[in-house]
Write a structure and sequence with these properties.
Layout lengths: L1 H65 L10 E4 L2 E4 H15 L8 E6 L4 E6 L8 E3 L1
Antiparallel strand pairs: 1-2, 3-4, 4-5
Length: 137
């Protein structure tokens, strides 16, 4: 009989331990769910803050880029002895003439000298000039 009593006590103790373990496991599941919910809430808050900051940066960038004044459209026309000479067109013609004659040379700078009284323009490209660097107007 002593064995039956011991067995019953052991069985009861085992049931108590199992019950306590189940309770602890249930508490752990609840705690894990609470932690998961808190982590999701924090992640949403961080994402929302990051989106807000990105919008602020975009807005600041737009403000900086729109503050620049647009370059005005300009034209220069030379009128002399009944002729009208557009400086931009003359400059474009000089660059084209140089490129046609010097295909392997990159044009970095151009200085244009318009002489309306002789009906011609002279140009200097990349700091180099020549008597051949001339166009008729």
């Amino acid at each position: 009989m002593a064995t039956k009593k011991t067995s019953a006590k052991a069985e009861k103790a085992a049931e108590t331990v199992v019950k306590a373990a189940k309770e602890k496991a249930a508490e752990a599941v609840v705690a894990a769910e609470e932690i998961k919910a808190a982590a999701e809430k924090t992640a949403k808050e961080v994402k929302k803050a990051a989106v807000k900051k990105a919008d602020e940066v975009k807005t600041a960038t737009r403000k900086r880029t729109t503050k620049k004044a647009a370059e005005p459209k300009c034209t220069v026309t030379i009128e002399f002895a009944g002729k009208s000479i557009a400086a931009k067109e003359t400059l474009d013609r000089a660059i084209k003439a140089f490129k046609d004659a010097h295909k392997d040379v990159e044009v970095k700078t151009v200085d244009l000298y318009i002489k309306p009284e002789t009906g011609e323009a002279f140009y200097v490209v990349n700091g180099e000039g020549s008597a051949d660097f001339r166009i008729e107007l």
